[in-house]
User: Fold this.
Amino acid sequence: MPSEMLSGPDLGAGYLHQLSIDRDGERTTFTYHAQEGGADAAGPPKGPLDVFGYVHPGVPCQFGGPRCWHRRFLLPFAETARVRTAYNRSRFVLQTMIAQAYEGVAAEVGPALGEVVRRLAGPLAAEGVPWYLGGSAGAWLLGASVQPRDIDVGTSRAGVDRIAGLLREYLIEPVAPTDWPRSGIVHGARAFVGTFQSGARVEWAVPLEPGPPIRWAEWGGRPEEARTLPTSFEGTELKVTRPEYALVRAWEANAPGRAAALLDLVRRLGPDRELAVALLDRSRLATGARAERLHELDV
Assistant:
């Protein structure tokens, strides 16, 4: 069956958007398309969409032409209404997300996190579903002088679906098997918690087919493996991953300002040297650079 357009063309954030579906027996692929839309779409866009997980197809696409960005999700056809709802919210908040990514507009992490905690903490605790916060938002909660760009949530396979249900009206990507370019094929979802004009992106996922456990993996879908610390937010007790995770990523990204703030936090808390060694060993840093960074922890 050929591709069928479900919505579009829709305008926004400098892009022309379409939602399409491809059905092949029991397999249904939903695709978000976004191409530069010119002045009619309030363009040109302020930046590319790869920061939100979009990719360029290898050939010009049927709906978006040669300069189209894609996000794909594999779901039953019965999920069409939910995908359409997430697609619409995605394009409505895209201008705000682009401003946060490219124009220095701060993500409203505090209010968004308050809403996330209110939605998740009680139900997940009652149901015994493990979850924790990580990334820069976790380090921020521990006192790091960083401005989080989004909110990363770690959980189990069952937790991915439950969190999507609790944040349903905020979803910008449906909970589904999908490709996260830096993580591979995952079962995950994304939300934008807040209004169309302000808020913060929230992400959570687990590997679709978990392989052998990676020691102390932050996002491996095995919450018991991640090294966490207790903290609280607005009176609610939370778990956050140790700042060594975010620190090693900052070193890999060659982000000295962020790395300095995270290193200061690690030193104040007391370094988890065992964790740092493991993370550096599997990082993209050269061997010599790993030794230099490890030495910084002990200074």
Notes: The radius of gyration is 20 Å. The chain has eight helices and eleven strands. Residues 106-241 form a domain with the Beta Polymerase; domain 2 fold (CATH 3.30.460). The helical segments are 80-102, 109-127, 135-141, 157-166, 244-252, 256-269, 273-281, 287-298.
